[in-house]
Automatic annotation (TrEMBL), chain A:
<dbReference type="GO" id="GO:0006974">
    <property type="term" value="P:DNA damage response"/>
</dbReference>
<dbReference type="InterPro" id="IPR016024">
    <property type="entry name" value="ARM-type_fold"/>
</dbReference>
<dbReference type="GO" id="GO:0005634">
    <property type="term" value="C:nucleus"/>
</dbReference>
<dbReference type="GO" id="GO:0005737">
    <property type="term" value="C:cytoplasm"/>
</dbReference>
<dbReference type="InterPro" id="IPR000357">
    <property type="entry name" value="HEAT"/>
</dbReference>
<protein>
    <submittedName>
        <fullName>BRCA1-associated ATM activator 1 isoform X4</fullName>
    </submittedName>
</protein>
<dbReference type="InterPro" id="IPR038904">
    <property type="entry name" value="BRAT1"/>
</dbReference>
<keyword id="KW-0963">Cytoplasm</keyword>
<comment type="similarity">
    <text>Belongs to the BRAT1 family.</text>
</comment>
From TrEMBL, chain B:
<dbReference type="InterPro" id="IPR022712">
    <property type="entry name" value="Beta_Casp"/>
</dbReference>
<keyword id="KW-0539">Nucleus</keyword>
<dbReference type="Pfam" id="PF07521">
    <property type="entry name" value="RMMBL"/>
</dbReference>
<dbReference type="Pfam" id="PF16661">
    <property type="entry name" value="Lactamase_B_6"/>
</dbReference>
<keyword id="KW-0862">Zinc</keyword>
<feature type="domain" description="Metallo-beta-lactamase">
    <location>
        <begin position="16"/>
        <end position="233"/>
    </location>
</feature>
<dbReference type="InterPro" id="IPR041897">
    <property type="entry name" value="INTS11-like_MBL-fold"/>
</dbReference>
<dbReference type="GO" id="GO:0046872">
    <property type="term" value="F:metal ion binding"/>
</dbReference>
<keyword id="KW-0378">Hydrolase</keyword>
Length: 809, 600
């Protein structure tokens, strides 16, 4: 179908120029022209919408327009919009989606007071949102319509007139009832709307501060508060939940004086809920209490509640005579045992929740002081021992806990996370020893699930990082080194696990450790004495690509630190390192999966940056070899990483490290006259420009961008150098430019051949790189997602749907 | 009240993205975690805040199940697990586990291409998410925890697609994901046993369609490709890396072989090898024909289909190219399209659905002048064809599956409301079961009557066995014993054992009843008459006349006494233990009818 008003533009033959894009902030004439036809389609119930996202995107566009300009003007300039809204009032078989859209659109428009008045004149608002509208009709059975109604009101409730309207059209009562809607979405939106209206009405008509006497509050606010009070007194849990959720949102959103008045008024009712047995809507109640937990007294109480499940664990284990010597529950003072932990599900749930909350609390400045670090550490260790089966409880309750928690992955996960988080604080030496012992137990245990093992590795790393150090020395302390001696055999075993997840997590852990302590004698000694480097090397040929990628990273790190397996005899002198380079190159050129190839490129780039011994030997040969393979790679990230490596080489060759931001203006160096051409020679020899120019037109945007950045950097570096012969008009330049033209058109069959530095510079200077960079900075779908494109798509779909029915994957 | 609750967060009366929450016997399971390809912001993901309102995701959910690798079923997974925060297990089949990260990476690339994409996951997140996956085999019962178990069934649709049965105790739900009831070129048909779940949650994409035979569509496809190639045109088929692409490749390969065609066929981005690798690895998941011929010739080792190089697009003469991505929204397929669009000899065949905001959507809706980057206008002169090869069950197939599984009720998802309405009525009429179709955010609640497991003591069991009957699951029988409820456990034991365990003394409980008989004779004679009568009536029972004059039938004791006021009437005292309640009541009713006349 030929779309009326579609733009026809002449083809721009040359280099891409900065595309101004289609301004979505105002309605451009083309869109205005398409709008009447679209409104007509929307109003026609026989025309189904092809794609359920269209109306959402259309509304997004209207929101952008109205946020930037006058809604009234928009309506006056596009009368078809009001016609569409009026059309919704006619009794007919309307699509619920279009009706919902219209309600939301009305709200967006009426958010501006003058536009609200304009729509009021036509009685459009009461007709759409009042009893006479969809509210009373069959359409109301659709949750989409109810949701549209609420969202429409939510948008328009921005000013005093709207508040007046809401109070008088009976909307508030409807919103009350919608809190109990069968749709979660509608019910939740209704609650949010109530909070919004309450806040709006408390802003006062003149914007002045509201009265601190609840009795003097505006009628609308009083009505809502009355409703909340009534709900809090109700016997039905859903009603109480709704009221609590509304309060939580209210207190979470604003901390005005009036909210404090409200809390004072309602807290007795809330406290009344706590006295019921069982406590109704417990979860919502917790949320509310957390959101109002401002007074110190309440915070202390809340903390005590959080500690209770752990205190129970302590109590159960307190009589433990075993060698682990778990500290007594009373040590912390604040950790006093209370209710016993009942059934398995409740016990696990309570413990997980308690641990998760404590973990969240840990880094906060307002966490309770003093913080019972040692007892908490003890509790985490005990829990892990209980779950792992190494605890030896002496009393019945302890044994009961043991049976409940043995092998419980949920608690293991939560406790390991918490234990890791606790590493930021200190602990008595004896307890820290226990921490390492329990971590080792988990790393060793064949029962640890891959997720648990991963968390155990993470926690171990955090504890090693924070283990006490000798001042001025970054090496591991003697205790940690002793631990390391036990750890490495475990790591060795885990690297051979049949589970790829375990092998991968082990390699990630090894990489982290090597990165931190690879230079330290103690660590190096222990690692080299183990089989770990050899096993890591073997994992380069793992059947799982993720593991191969992690092995590449780990080997790269080991090699950087000189921690690869030492050659077996004098005949292998230096052979090992070489073979790693060859092995990685082999992976880069042959691995069928992208992840290992990407990892190789990252290692190579790092090696080049660090002037790794193998690379430094013959850098040019290395770079040429890597770029040749990377430029042909099918994975865009490998190509992009190849350009990153090229950039590092470029920087090193020109002797000018790139400023942190590639786009920053770097003052051009006064490059010595003769050496520039010379300096560029190696770049030409490694065929860096062939790759860069080709990448400029890569079908994957990030690659093209990277290349653009590289060439811009080169141009900036050589800007001041006028010494090179101006070879703009030489036949070489012409042929390169012609080749680039062809490439841009998509024909990349022919290589550029050998390029001379002069030609490269001339071409780089002639390219509109800024324009290209601007074009690439746009989203790849910026044309398709423009408002005009959206309108055209919606119109084009009309009549086609019959043939191509809505489908999916 | 025990119940099953289902709330779709996605796929409720739409086909955007599947994400369905199921609560069954206190366990919470999330079925699929899909992404909507039509949005570039957070709206592409299901709104998980509705779950987090009930606590942390990890604490609330017991597990997540992914039915297959399509992004509208698994695309939100890394966001869900690594950004929202879910540490629990994620279940999927082995092929899905292998292919999922490839498609997620593919989509991540598109997201990176589109600037302004916020909140998108990284490669590391995809990997970390995949580490939480537990892969399952078909028909293997996997124990998620002590009570919750799941089982996968073959679903057709795409490689590795599965339907899942979720079971807690005697309650169960089956979720179909997307499925196909007719076999295609490389996959078999969906199958499930008569598992009689409480609820069957089924997709309903083609709820009102009876699809034409696949053969017709295939013939049509081949004819179009053939014609275009014969006329020297180039044919572009935009596809997603895995799925339909493989089926169409097999189709073309066979046709080329049969017709001895020479025009080259290419498959872009090196995915053929990767796809081959997976199809070889998971050969058991393909259909019978492919499995059978695999030994002689691997269907996925193509003779005519070669890897594509960017330079080939400019080669003269006809060719067919499969290129990714499938909606012409970026990358290679779009690049080739732009190059070939101007020639009316060329053809683009869209084998699947395209969301708004893509070039694929535009050309399918008939737009022929497309604005391209840099304000260029591309005139599309090439032929545009749409052929849906998506493999979903049609209305007939859905009814067939309902018939196979015999659920107590059905719930429709992944379809359009109007079509669902029609199918709902059909299902309700034909199978006499309730059928639901909740919109997103709406909760369907089904009451259930769970059976509670009771342990039986060995002693009691032995006693029953001694009676000669072996236990048979299909023939329930009555068993007497004492039910002990302790520590939320139920045990059935003999009453003696119960007394012993609970330290209680035994009480004898007897029922007594008086029956008035008109009989002027002496008590002993009346008793004798009663004895003779019962002896003749109750031939299978042990009837005795005791020396003290009383009569017994099993534990029932009958004594005759004189009436205090009426000498012509005798009173029969009948007494029995509760174990013989049935016989006792029978005897009293028998005696109340009177005794037969004594022979004179």
């Amino acid at each position: 179908m030929r779309v009326p008003g579609a733009r026809t533009r002449t083809h721009t033959p040359n280099w891409p120029t900065r595309c101004p894009g289609i301004s979505s902030l105002t309605m451009d004439p083309e869109c205005s022209q398409l709008l009447p036809a679209l409104c007509a389609v929307l109003a026609d119930p026989r025309q189904p919408m092809a794609d359920d996202t269209c109306l959402e995107k259309l509304l997004d566009w209207f929101k952008t327009i109205t946020e930037a300009g006058s809604s009234l003007l928009l309506l006056q300039e596009n009368p078809c919009l009001v016609e569409l809204l009026c059309h919704m009032l006619k009794p007919q078989d309307l699509s619920s989606r279009v009706l919902s859209f219209s309600l939301r659109l009305t709200g967006v428009l009426a958010a501006q007071e003058d536009c609200f008045q304009y729509l009021q004149q036509g009685e459009l608002l009461p007709k759409l949102f009042g009893e006479a509208g969809p509210l009373g009709g069959a359409a109301w059975t659709s949750p989409a319509v109810r949701s549209g109604w609420i969202q429409g009101l939510r948008s328009l409730a921005q000013h005093a007139s709207a508040l007046h309207f809401l109070a008088h059209c009976g909307a508030v009562d409807t919103i009350f009832s919608l809190q109990e809607d069968s749709s979660l979405f509608v019910a939740s939106a209704a609650g949010q709307l109530l909070v919004h209206i309450l806040g709006l009405s408390m802003q006062g008509p003149a914007g002045g501060p509201p009265s601190l006497q609840a009795g003097d509050w505006p009628a609308c606010a009083q009505k809502i508060v009355g409703h909340i009070e009534e709900s809090l007194r109700a016997t039905a849990t859903p009603q109480i939940t709704q009221a609590l959720n509304v309060l939580t949102t209210t207190f979470g959103h604003c901390h005005n004086p009036w909210t404090q008045v409200l809390w004072v008024q309602l807290s007795p009712l809330v406290a009344g809920l706590l006295e019921k047995d069982p406590i109704p809507a417990a979860h919502s109640l917790v949320d509310l209490l957390l959101s109002v937990a401002r007074p110190q007294a309440l915070r202390a109480q809340a903390f005590a509640v959080l500690l209770q499940p752990l205190a129970c664990v302590f109590k159960a284990m307190a009589q433990d005579p075993g060698p682990s010597g778990v500290p007594d529950g009373t040590v912390g003072g604040s950790m006093t045992a209370g209710v016993p932990l009942p059934s398995k599900a409740a016990c696990v749930g309570l413990l997980c929740r308690s641990l998760a909350h404590l973990e969240l609390l840990l880094p906060l400045p307002q966490r309770p002081c003093p913080w019972p670090q040692a007892p908490l550490l003890g509790a985490a260790v005990t829990l892990l021992q209980l779950c792992g089966g190494s605890a030896r409880p002496a009393c019945d309750m302890g044994r009961h806990l043991c049976t409940l928690l043995l092998g419980c992955v949920r608690v293991q996960r939560a406790a390991l996370d918490f234990l890791g988080a606790l590493s930021d604080g200190t602990g008595p030496r004896e307890l820290v020893t226990q921490v390492f012992a329990v971590l080792l137990e988990y790393l060793r245990s064949p029962d640890s699930s891959p997720t648990v093992l991963k968390k155990a590795f993470q926690a171990t790393f955090r504890w090693l990082l924070n283990s006490p150090k000798t001042p001025g020395c970054w090496d591991l302390d003697p205790h940690a080194l002793l631990f390391l001696r036990d750890l490495l055999p475990v790591l060795q075993k885990r690297l051979c696990s049949p589970c790829w997840e375990v092998r991968d997590s082990s390699l990630e852990f090894l990489t982290q450790m090597t990165r931190h302590w690879g230079g330290q004698a103690g660590f190096r000694h222990a690692l080299l004495a183990s089989e770990v480097p050899k096993l890591t090397e073997q994992l380069l040929r793992d059947p799982e690509s993720y593991v191969r990628a992690s092995a590449v990273t780990a080997m790269g790190q080991l090699s950087s630190q000189g921690l690869c397996v030492p050659p077996a005899g004098p005949e292998h002198q230096g052979g090992q390192q070489k073979s790693l380079l060859v092995e990685l190159l082999h992976i880069l050129s042959t691995d069928s999966e992208g992840f290992p190839r990407r990892a190789v490129m990252q290692v190579f780039t790092q090696w080049l940056r660090d002037s790794h011994a193998d690379v430094a030997g013959d850098t040019e040969q290395f770079v040429a070899g890597v770029l040749q393979v990377a430029s042909q790679d099918l994975d865009w990230e490998v190509r992009a990483q190849g350009l990153e490596l090229a950039l590092v080489f470029l920087e090193q060759t020109l002797g000018q490290p790139r400023s942190h931001c590639p786009h920053a203006v770097t003052p051009p160096v006064e490059a010595p006259v003769g050496p520039l051409a010379q300096a560029l020679q190696p770049l030409c020899r490694v065929r860096l420009f062939d790759f860069a120019f080709r990448a400029l037109f890569d079908c994957d945007r990030p690659v093209a961008q990277k290349s653009c950045d590289l060439l811009l950097f080169l141009r900036a570096q050589t800007a001041s150098s006028s010494s090179l012969q101006e070879s703009r008009s030489s036949p070489d330049v012409a042929s390169v430019e012609a080749a680039l033209q062809r490439w841009q058109a998509g024909d990349q069959a022919q290589p550029l051949g050998d390029l001379e530095p002069e030609v490269v510079l001339a071409v780089v200077r002639s390219l509109d790189l800024e324009g290209l960079r601007g074009a690439l900075a746009e989203s790849s779908d910026h044309v398709e997602k423009s408002p005009q494109s959206l309108l055209q798509d919606m119109l084009a779909t009309v009549g086609v749907l019959g043939e191509n029915e809505a489908d999916c994957y | 009240m025990p119940e099953i609750r289902v709330t779709p967060l996605g796929a409720g009366q739409d086909v955007g993205r599947s994400c369905i929450l199921v609560s069954i016997a206190g366990k919470n399971v999330m079925l699929d975690c899909g992404m909507h390809m039509g949005f570039n912001d957070d709206r592409r993901f299901p709104d998980f805040s509705y779950i987090t309102r009930n606590g942390r995701l990890t604490d609330f959910l017991d597990c997540v199940i992914i039915s297959h690798f399509h992004l509208d079923h698994c695309g939100a997974l890394p966001y869900f697990s690594e950004m929202v925060g879910y540490d629990g297990p994620i279940y999927m089949t082995h092929p899905t586990q292998a292919i999922c990260p490839i498609l997620l990476e593919d989509y991540r690339k598109i997201a990176v291409d589109k600037k302004g994409e916020a909140n998108f996951f990284t490669s590391q997140m995809i990997k970390d998410c995949m580490k939480k996956v537990v892969a399952v085999h078909l028909h293997q019962t996997v124990q998620v925890d002590d009570e919750l178990e799941i089982k996968a069934y073959y679903a057709g649709h795409v490689l590795g697609a599965a339907m899942f049965q979720i079971k807690v105790g005697s309650e169960s739900v089956v979720y179909t994901g997307d499925y196909n009831m007719t076999p295609d070129r490389h996959l078999g048909a969906a199958w499930i046993d008569k598992c009689r779940p409480n609820l069957l949650i089924t997709e309903s994409t083609y709820a009102t369609t009876i699809r034409d035979s696949k053969r017709c569509r295939e013939r049509d496809f081949l004819k179009k490709v053939h014609e275009a190639v014969e006329h020297g045109g180039k044919v572009l088929i935009p596809v997603f890396a895995l799925g339909r692409a493989q089926e169409l490749c097999i189709l073309l390969e066979t046709f080329w072989e049969r017709m001895n065609l020479k025009a080259p066929i290419y498959f872009s981005t090196g995915l053929t090898e990767k796809a081959n690798h997976y199809y070889k690895l998971f050969i058991t998941w393909t259909n019978q024909k492919i499995r059978k011929t695999f030994v002689q010739r691997n269907m996925f080792e193509f003779k005519h289909i070669k890897a594509f190089d960017r330079a080939f697009a400019d080669n003269p003469g006809p060719m067919v190219v499969f290129a990714t991505p499938g909606m012409l929204h970026a990358g290679q397929s779009l690049q080739i399209f732009r190059k070939w669009a101007g020639n009316e000899k060329n053809m683009v065949i869209m084998p699947g659905y395209c969301v708004q905001g893509t070039v694929g959507h535009k050309i399918l809706s008939g737009q022929r002048k497309l604005e391209m980057e840099g304000r260029q206008v591309l005139e599309v002169k090439m032929q545009v064809e749409y052929m849906s090869f998506s493999a979903h069950a049609d209305a007939k197939g859905i009814m067939q599956l309902v018939g196979q599984a015999e659920p107590e009720s059905v719930l429709l998802v992944h379809g359009e409301a109007k079509k669902m309405e029609f199918l709902k009525q059909k299902i309700e009429q034909e199978f006499r079961v309730n059928c639901y179709m909740p919109a997103n955010g709406e909760t369907v609640t089904l009451p259930t009557s769970p059976s509670i497991p009771v342990g039986i003591s060995l002693g009691l069991l032995k006693r029953e066995m001694a009676q000669g009957l072996l236990p048979d699951a299909k023939k329930p029988r009555l068993l007497h014993g004492t039910l002990i409820m302790k520590d939320s456990n139920f045990r059935l034991v003999s009453s003696e054992q119960a007394l012993k365990e609970l330290g209680l003394a035994e009480h004898q409980l007897r029922f007594t009843c008086r029956v008035h008989l008109h009989d002027p004779r002496k008590e002993q004679e009346t008793a004798m008459r009663v004895y003779s009568h019962l002896k003749s009536v109750l031939k299978d029972h042990c009837v005795q006349h005791l020396p003290d004059g009383s009569v017994t039938v099993e534990s029932i004791l009958i004594q005759a006494a004189a009436h205090s006021e009426d000498p012509g009437t005798k009173v029969l005292l009948v007494s029995w233990t509760y174990q013989d309640e049935e016989l006792g009541s029978y005897l009293t009713s028998l005696l109340k009818k009177g005794l037969p006349q004594a022979p004179s």
